[in-house]
Amino acid sequence: MDEQLPGRPTAHSRVTLSKIMTAVDVNLYGTVHGGVLMKFVDDVAGAAAARHSGGTAVTAAIDEIVFLEPVRVGDLVHAYAQVNWTGTSSMEVGVKVTGERWDAVGDPIRVATAYLVFVAVDVAGNPRPVPPVLPDDMDDRRRFKEALIRRDHRLARRAAIQKARAE
Ligand SMILES: CC(C)(COP(=O)(O)OP(=O)(O)OC[C@H]1O[C@@H](n2cnc3c(N)ncnc32)[C@H](O)[C@@H]1OP(=O)(O)O)[C@@H](O)C(=O)NCCC(=O)NCCS
Asked: Are the beta carbons of 92 and 131 closer than 8 angstroms?
């Protein structure tokens, strides 16, 4: 995989999905099920990865997902995704989820944050190279650096577990 593709700015991959939560989305407590939000996050992240890589990309890992506030039936939920970092065939996608309460006036509140790794694949399902992401501004440069920290931690954790298993 020595092909060098031209870079793409972060803005190229930005995608927003919005959805009103309904009664079929709830858990036993009556708030929106975490799995419903996880699928929503995976969908929007997949769209950003496909946009950046110009084709199919599969979810390889969910690095982190944090639920900050409960979401309720009737809330209008928005998920914002962008590619933060690129490797050779892999990409980190960051997702911010906000919610507008159906019964309250005010700014949307942050309800979840997630970081996922996608790998671009060809028709045979083999990894294919992705264009390097070109961070647009200071925030995107910060996100790029933070993605590298998450990657380093992920690889270090995997190496430590493999070492412990070999002992
Ligand atoms: C993701 C997948 C394509 C990787 O294939 P692979 O042959 O193991 O890939 P390689 O070991 O050659 O690694 C390719 C890239 O994937 C990354 N990768 C592989 N597994 C990973 C993991 N668990 N977490 C993060 N990155 C991973 C590698 O770091 C590498 O990145 P780079 O090219 O930027 O350096 C393959 O494991 C797969 O198809 N998994 C199932 C995906 C799926 O079904 N998802 C759910 C539905 S979309």
From this structure: no
